[in-house]
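SEVERITY: medium
COMPONENT: batch folding queue
REPORTER: lab tech (J.R.)

DESCRIPTION
The queue accepted two submissions in a row. Attaching both inputs and their returned structure tokens so the on-call engineer can compare them side by side.

ATTACHMENT 1
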Amino acid sequence: VHGILNIIGWGTLLPIGVIVARYFKQFPIKLDPCWYYFHYSCQVVGYILGTAGWGLGLFLGHESKYYTFHSHRVLGICIFGFTTLQILAFQFKPTQEDEYRKHWNVYHHFLGYALLVMIPVNIYKGIKLLKPDNITWKWTYNGILVLLGVVVLAFEILTWAVFLYKKCCKKTVEESSPRRVEIEEDSKGQTNEGSSPRKTEVEE
């Protein structure tokens, strides 16, 4: 139960929330404000499940008299602390006009990506402790990570495709603009030349 809660909560829902924030906020697909509610929901539900699994892990560690898993325990505490800070950050997020918003963004992104590294490492540490039946758990989580990786790769390709397409369209418009100006100037010049004799005849 401890492993299932942490794999679903911290190992799956939190990364999905990050993917939503990265690819659905503005570019390449803008789903405003739906992306924020989905991102927030993934983080909150993932935090609740992960915290439940973390608390159960502390209980199991306390009840285990003969086994101590120091690094797994320390990483678990750090993950819980960082995820708690991330959840609290939602409550104290400055407005877009606030001068501290840039600093908040840097902090929020840095802590989020740090968690994306720490969580899989600790999950694999936990799976390694499940001797001898750790193969099924290992391949299950491998499949989850591969699936998330494929989704990220697909969105990265889409991001670059959209970026290059917009850049190409912008370049085409910029190249056609001088020609349009030249055509307009030529047409104006021809109009002025054509109207000069008429003016002269009227004056005479």
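ATTACHMENT 2
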Amino acid sequence: DLSGHVLAYLSLSPVFVIVGFVTLIIFKRELHTISFLGGLALNEGVNWLIKHVIQEPRPCGGPHPAVSTKYGMPSSHSQFMWFFSVYSFLFLYLRMHQTNNARFLDLLWRHVLSLGLLTVAFLVSYSRVYLLYHTWSQVLYGGIAGGLMAIAWFVFTQEVLTPLFPRIAAWPISEFFLIRDTSLIPNVLWFEYTVTRAEARTRELGGQDSQGACVSTPRDSSAQTLSAR
């Protein structure tokens, strides 16, 4: 049915998230993004460990041959998406700070983005039950585990890793790969916008000055020729 197809595509959200992180790391090379991805990887490792300790089977009648493990407690999709959503929620409201005057718009997009992330996490969890990959208890405990892991990793990142980021960014290997630290910048989006805009204006003015210098050169040459005669 149509709803099943939609939910099946939604259940691929973890794949899209991973692709997005890899793309961000390649183009941004920011330490906090790398740390976020490391937290997701650790979260997956914890999920694998819990599954093999509890060894609770998946629900009867589900398409089990298509999955990598026969155990279903807790749901890895649910744990992954709730880790991603809760960590992003904490980052938006605790890590990012207001630096410009658009206070209302800033809060609005944070609320909308947070609501969207939590909605996607819920829909992915629901899709695993609808598609018979998990029971309600498996996705519920997966969500709880993911949320708790997100809170723990956020605190660890802020209190332990973030103070080390400037030192890590100064390592020769970090400089070679252009790894950067933006932890001291409250709003990276606003910072990049203002810096890019200022640089564009500077280059535009520099280009105009260069064109003016090129136009005046022939006149100066003609004047020198006439004076020589």
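NOTES FROM REPORTER
The first helix runs from residue 2 to 10.
No errors were logged for either attachment.
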